[in-house]
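Our platform keeps sequence and structure together, in a single record for each protein. Nothing more is needed to write down the fold, since each code stands for a local backbone conformation. An entry from our holdings is shown next, in its original layout:
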Amino acid sequence: AAGVRLHYVTDGRGPLLVLLHGFPEFWYSWRSQIPVLARYFKVVAVDMRGYNESDKPAGVSAYSVEKLVNDVKCVVRAFGKEQAVIVGHDWGGVVAWSFGATYPEMTRRLVVMNAPHPVAFEKALRTDRRQLRRSWYIFFFQLPKLPEWGIRVFAGRFVKNAFQGTAVMKEVFTAEELQVYETALTLPGVAKAAVNYYRAAFRRFLLGKASAM
């Protein structure tokens, strides 16, 4: 995808369905859904750029929403399709929203989970103090080097808080599964790339361009 190699997992036959994961995740988050969806679709679960086994280009600009959207376009084209069902969660949902807006003709269906519409989110950040407080981590991620250092050093605690900390049923995430996420997050370059998603989005926000974070 424009010089960036993307790792993916695929299964099934039929119309193309692309799964886009969130932060701090990778294709593994879709492990339970892939076999079911593969009964009806050609499922492609992507490691988004910077994550797990996909390439990790240097620089904040490499993680702009435009480039993330182009990655999805390249995935669809790589499978020889003109359209795809795009399913995104969290950061994958951000990219899904933007892909649908940029390439409506390539979007057969759009499914977004846990990601507000970019315009609505930008408005909330500018006008809603409660939302601003809840989005404190976005501002923390703008600091140089410290956020990715903290994620690497405290990866186990970070992953546990990210998953079990927000889950109603905390037992859903086993210790073994959390270890899988921790291992993927501590691969060289992943923590920095993941934080760069937020840095690129925040720079876009400062320019007055809607982009959810």
